[in-house]
Amino acid sequence: MPPHTTKPSCPIIRQDSGHRGDSSQYRGSVFECDILIIGAGAAGLAAAAAVQDQGRRVILVEKEDYVGGTTFRSGGCMWMPNNFRMQELGIEDSKEQAERYIAAVGKATSPGLDEDIVLRDLQNRRLKAFLTQGPEMAKYFRNQGFRWMAAPSKFPDYHPHMEGAVAYGRTLDPEVFDAASLEGWVRYLQVQENVPVISRFEDLCVLTRRPFSTGCATKTVAPPQDMERPMSMGQSLIAQLLKICKEHSNVTIWTRCELQELLVSDLDGRVIGAKVLCGRSEKPVHIHASLGVVLTTGGFSQNQKMRDTYLGIGSTDGRASKISTMAGWSLAAPGDIGIALQVSQRLHADSAQLDQVWGIPTMINPGTGKVTEAMFAISKPFSFVVDGYGRRFFSESQPYGAAVRSMYERAKKGSRTAEFWLIFDDKYMQAYPIGGLQSPWLIDQAVEKGLLVRSDTVDGLSKQILVPNQSLQATLSEWNEMCDGGRDKHFHRGEDRYQQFIGDPDVTPNPCMGPVKESPFYAIKIFPGDAGTRGGPLTDEFARVLRKNGDVIHGLFAGGNASAALLESQGAGTTLAPAMTEGFIAVTYMLSLASAASSS
C-alpha cells in the first residue's frame, strides 16, 4: 500500500510507512521517485538495497501481502563463481574457468541458444557482466551487513564431469538471521512461529536421511536459543536484504499494489513510470520515476493460460500441445503470473526462452497435501521412478533441471508416458520418511486420503496406479539385480560427485542405489515441476530491456525471472545469483548515468 500521505511525492521511508489499509484516498494521486521497482523478491530487494545514496528516493511495489516471492520459500543459496569466500579460503577458481564451465553446460542443455549468433553474443555480454559484477555485488552486500555462512556450501557443481567444474565453494548460503532485528519492518515478512530451522539448503539432503545416518545428528533443526525470530535459507536472504533497505532509509515499500501498465513519454518513448492498482482502490495510482523502472515480478509459473501458450509438452510452434504443464506442479509463489512479460510485450520488447522452466521434480506432500520438491526423495536408494508403462527412463539422482527435461522428453511420447511414479519399499519409508511420515498412523492417514499408494505386493501396487504389472515386475527385478553390483547399466545413477552427494553415504557400494524388495510397497506421483519460468523480456549487460530490433527501451530494466534467463542449472543457486546481480547492475547503471549527467 502507498504510505499515508497526500503529497504527490515519494517520501523518505519511516518506520511506520508502507501501510496495508484502504488506499481509496489515493485515487488519481501522482507520486514521484527516482527509481521504481516492481516486485519484491530477491532481484527487487537487491535493487532497492543497492541504492545507498540517501538523496535517491526508491519505491518498491509488491502485489502480494508480503515481500519475498518465490525466494522466500527457496533454499536461498547463490551460485557465484570466484566469490570472496573462495578467495579467503584459497579455493581455486577464476572468471575464465567459470566461463568454460557455463559454456559447456549451456551447450549440453540448450544447444539451440548457441546457434543464434545475435542471441549468443548478447548472452556472452551478459555473462561477462555477471561474472564481473556478481562478486562485487556479494561484497557490497556483505559490507552493508549481509552475512553469509563462514563455511562454503559442500554442494558440488551439478555437472562435475564438464570442463571448468569445481568440487565445492561456488555456492554461498545466508546465515541464520533474527528477523526480530527488523522491528516494525517484520510486518513485511510472512513469519511462521515455532518452526524448525534448517540452516542451509544442503541440510535438506541430510535431513531426508535416516536419523542415525552419517552427519545427520550434527544438524541443528531447532531455533537458535539466542534468536527471537530465526530465519534461514531463502527467508534469511529476503530478511537481510529488507534490513539493508530499512537502514538506508530511502526505500518506501508498497504491498498489495499491482502493476497495471507502464507509463511512456510521448517525446522519446522512454519509460517514465507506472500505473499501479493498490488495495481495494478502483483507480490506479501513477508513479513517476525520474531514473527508471525495474521489473522484478518473476515469471509466469502460476498463470495457467500462459503455461498453455508457451509450455505445452510436445509443442513445436509455440502453441500448447495436448499435454499441458500445470501451475499446480510449480513451487513458484502465487504472484508469479507473468505481468513483466505482458507489459513489456505491449512495448514490443523482444523475449526468449518462453518454452523453458527452472525444472525441479515435485510431488504432493503426503503429510500436508501441498506441492513440494521431490528432488531429494527420488534420489535416495531403495527406490526408482517409472512412467505409465512401468519403465525407468532416466537417472533419478541427476541434477533436478536435467531430470525434468528427461520427464518432458518422455511425456512427448504420449499421455501414458506423461505419468510418473516413485516406487519404493518399507526400507525406504523407514530410512527416509517421505513427507515427514514418521509414524504408522500418519502413513495410514496419507493412504486413506489418497496421497500415498500402498500395497503388500507389487502386483497390488501396479493395479492401484494403473501400471502394467508385468512391466513393473520386470523393472523391479532388473533394478534389484543392478543394485547388487552397485551399477546402473542404463542411466549411470550415482556415478558422479553430485549424485553421490545427494544419495546416502551409509549405503554401499552406490549411495544412490538400493533394492526395492521389503513389503509393503509404496508409490507416489511425481510431476515435472518447476521453481519458476526461464523466459521473459530480453535484456542486455546493463539489464536494459530490448526491443525486437535490438534497440534499448530506455528507462526500462528487468531482472530475475522477469527477464530471459542467463544461466542453466550449473549449480545450487543459479537462479538467485543472476537475479540479485541483475537488480544490482540495473540500479548501478541508472545511478552512474545520473551522476554523469549532473557533473556535465
TrEMBL record:
> What are the record keywords, sorted?
FAD, Flavoprotein, Oxidoreductase
GO annotation terms (biological process): steroid metabolic process
Record flagged with keyword Flavoprotein: yes
| Entries under InterPro entries matching the protein | FAD-dep_OxRdtase_2_FAD-bd (IPR003953), FAD-oxidoreductase_2 (IPR050315), FAD/NAD-bd_sf (IPR036188), Succ_DH/fumarate_Rdtase_cat_sf (IPR027477)
- Looking at the keywords, is Aminoacyl-tRNA synthetase present? no
What highest taxon heads this organism's lineage?
Answer: Eukaryota
Cofactor(s) essential for the protein:
FAD
Q: Domain (FAD-dependent oxidoreductase 2 FAD-binding): give its ranges.
A: 34-565
Q: Extract the PANTHER family matched here.
A: 3-OXOSTEROID 1-DEHYDROGENASE, FUMARATE REDUCTASE
Q: What is this protein called?
A: FAD-dependent oxidoreductase 2 FAD-binding domain-containing protein
Q: Which organism is it from?
A: Fusarium oxysporum f. sp. lycopersici (strain 4287 / CBS 123668 / FGSC 9935 / NRRL 34936) (Fusarium vascular wilt of tomato)
Classification from the root reads: Eukaryota, Fungi, Dikarya, Ascomycota, Pezizomycotina
